Amino acid sequence: MASLSLSPQACPEQDRKAVLSLARLLLLLLLAVVIAGCVPRSRPAPPPEPEGPIEQPEGPSRLPPDETRNRVAVLVPLSGPNAGLGQSILNAANLALLDTGGQRIRITAYDTARGAQAAANEAIEDGSGLFLGPLLAGDVRAVTAIAARERVPVLAFSNDVSIASDGVYVLGFNPGQSVERVVAYARSRGAQRFAALVPTGVYGQRTGQALTRAVETAGGTLVGMESYERGTASLRTAANRLTARGRADAVLIADGSQVALAAIPIVRQSSPQPRILGTELWATDANLGSNVALRGSWFAAPSDGNFGAFSRRYRARYNANPFRLASLGYDAVLLTVRIAENWPIGRRFPARTLRESTGFAGVDGAFRFGRDNVAERALEVREVGASGVGVVSPAPRGFE
């Protein structure tokens, strides 16, 4: 038997070529494995080190940084029962910014009805350097500590003077000033003996205290003061008690004009009839002259001389009538724009200038902040007549 040979000479030509190709492939694979095991794999280069420290944000913010304007927060109720008033104040604030072309401040609104503290904290996180508002005294008290911690001044729209403190300024209409102004005018017109009907509660207490001071300052005599619970029956009972005390030249009824109507017929039973004095609350009643019993009454309030023009601009832009207190938002922005000229971008608001100034002028006339941080206002005295109200003593244009 012949033996089997594996030499190339013994294989067919095609088999010899296949074997050589397979050998070359195996050799290449072997070299690749060797090279992979001997040469290290490259690693990605590390990122370059920063040339300086990376600035970390101080806290979360909804708003992008602004290097050309200082942020101002408007804290007002934008939901709930006071939403209409809050929106009107905010609209007026924006209108003032448009009218003045203020380029150094940026206004952002925060809804205090959802929580005054939460609104204040959000405003701080957004970088606000000044609070305009809140409106309600309770909300002002809620944000005072937050604002003080960050050294952010508060220009409150409230009329409660008890909330005024270091860093908190009361911009609202102070009923005590209205009483002082109308008493001084009545005294100048010959009234000597004064009396009052005041509601129970904080407003009545403070109005009564203001009357006592005003009568003493004016050199008059306080002959009686009676308090009443809110309600017609209680008011009439108090009016009868007051009339029994004896004659008065002028009687202050520290309530709204519609409430006063229940007491006026009783008070005027005296002979001669006393002059009826109202408060700043009467300024919001557009139909005073339609009530015969109110005619001849005096009350003091901020001038309406500029309010008509303000109302027309407001209606043209928002297609609605402004609330009477909306002027507070407008005047607050006028004040801010004026001071912003000396407020370096990114620095703290220069609150000291609020009291150093000789005063500010706005929709509601001249005002200034005293040492008590309460806005002192130049008020006019009005008399109710058959055709409405007329000014019998104009408001001063400024302060001495």
Features:
disordered N terminus, five-stranded parallel beta sheet, Rossmann fold, 38% helix, single chain, 400 residues, 12 helices, four-stranded parallel beta sheet, alpha/beta
Helix/strand-derived category reads alpha/beta
Fraction in helix:
25-40%
- In the CATH hierarchy, what is the superfamily of the domain at 175-302 and 379-393? Response regulator
Name the shape in a single word: elongated
Strand arrangement, major sheet: 2-1-3-4-5
User: Residue ranges: pLDDT <50 for 5 or more in a row?
Assistant: 1-23, 25-61
Instruction: Tell me the total number of β-strands.
Output: 15
In whole angstroms, how far apart are the ends? 142 Å
Polypeptide structure, described:
The protein has 400 residues and is of the alpha/beta class. Among the domains are: 135 residues, Rossmann fold, CATH 3.40.50; 143 residues, Rossmann fold (3-Layer(aba) Sandwich), CATH 3.40.50.2300. It has twelve helices and 15 strands. The N and C termini lie far apart (142 Å).
